[in-house]
Amino acid sequence: MGRSKRRKFYGNRFLTSKKVTNPVDGTSAEVIVTCGEKKLQTSQEHFREDTVDKKELTGFRIIDTEILIFILNILLCPECKNNGLYFVQDSTFGLCPNFCFYCKNCPFSKGFASSKKQQRDSAINTIFVCALRIIGKGFTAAKKLCATLNLPAFLSKVSYRIQELKLLYASVSVVQNSMKHADGEIRNADPVPSMKCGVSVDDTWKRRGYSSLNGVVSSISIVNRKVIDMEAMSQFCKKCDTKISSSFSQKYQYANHKGSSRNVEVIGAYRIFEHSVNSCVLIYSEHFGDEIFKS
User: Fold this and answer.
1) What is the 3-state secondary structure (H, E, C) of the chain?
2) Is residue 142 one of the residues assigned to a domain?
3) Which of the listed residues 155, 181, 216 is the one where a domain comes to its end?
4) Residue 283 in contact with residue 276, Cβ under 8 Å?
5) Which of 27, 151, 271, 284 has the fewest Cβ atoms nearer than 10 Å?
6) Which pLDDT value is given to residue 273?
7) Cβ atoms < 10 Å from Cβ of 159
8) Residue 20: its pLDDT value, please?
9) 136 and 75 in one domain?
10) Residue (of 170, 254, 166) closest to 214 by Cα position
């Protein structure tokens, strides 16, 4: 049996070739791109700026400090370019600890806070207190939550009350500006500015039934369907209950209602109509109520 004829090599089927034209002499040359080069080109495309998601990260994240320290140990010192950074906590105020970087090989150090500060106050503490107030919880619930999640010790009771007062002043300012804006819309709704408008009064209280201690009554305009006035009503004042001094009670008296919660809407509507007469901004000429006013 004779030897088989030797075949010529026409190229590998796993290799691709590209013709590149030389701009100087116009000649062409074949450039062979291997599979490894293809993979490298594909991996480089994933790290291009146009393919990377540039969505800015905002907000807060909960992370274990052990994981954070493990990741930060990989970083190099920006001065001596050596591994040796260690991460410590200097101080803390509420949920905002202050951290610091130190280098073991050089005198480099850098401190920072874990939350943005507004007028020397940490934003995380104010936001946390606001979230507790929204869900109807207080200082004791905050301490229990922080202890369960192994978070830093929360604010003291005095600092917690200071944060509540800041939220109170901010919310009052926002409410007043919103109602003034709604009043302006009603006055400018017609070609001829009018001082009269019809309102619908509604109330709500903190708990179900007629035994709630706190409630609020609001008047809604029938023109733009926005709240233009409100009256907060309460049957209990903790400051008046703890302080016996009459001068203190008159200055910080928040209890402005006695009786059943069923009468909150009627009494609150009467006070709201008094506001309209005394303020001379808008006069509530018509009232659209429900059956509770018939009684």
Assistant:
1) CCCCCCCCCCCCCCCEEEEEECCCCCCEEEEEECHHHHHHHHHHHHCCCCCCCCCCCCCCCCCCHHHHHHHHCCCECCCCCCECEEEEEEEEECCEEEEEEEECCCCCEEEEECCCEECCEEHHHHHHHHHHHHCCCCHHHHHHHHHHCCCCCCCCHHHHHHHHHHHHHHHHHHHHHHHHHHHHHHHCCCCCCCCEEEEEEEEEECCCCCCCCEEEEEEEECCCCCEEEEEEEECCCHHHHHCCCHHHHHHCCCCCCCCCHHHHHHHHHHHHHHHHHHHCCCEEEEECCCHHHCC
2) yes
3) 155
4) yes
5) 27
6) 81
7) 16
8) 46
9) yes
10) 254
Residue 196 sits in the same domain as residue 268: yes
Q: Is the same domain home to 84 and 136?
A: yes
Cα distance between residue 113 and residue 60, in whole Å: 13
The residues, any chain, with a CB within 8 Å of residue 79's CB and separated by 6 or more, are 103, 106, 108
**How many domains does the structure of the chain reveal?**
2
Shared domain for 151 and 195, answered yes or no, is no
In the block, which residue shows the tokens 């993979």?
Answer: 39
What pLDDT does 267 receive? 82
**Mean pLDDT in each 10-residue stretch from start to end of the chain (295 residues)?**
69 54 51 63 59 70 85 83 82 87 86 84 89 89 90 87 90 88 80 76 73 81 84 77 57 69 78 75 74 52
Domain of 267 in residue numbering reads as 191-288
Identity of the residue numbered 213: L
Q: Position 76: which residue type?
A: L
Domain for residue 113, yes or no?
Answer: yes
Q: Please state the length of the chain.
A: 295
> Which residue type sits at 228?
I
- Residue 63 confidence (pLDDT): 85
Task: Clarify whether residues 135 and 208 are in a common domain.
Answer: no
Domain check: are 282 and 199 in the same one?
A: yes
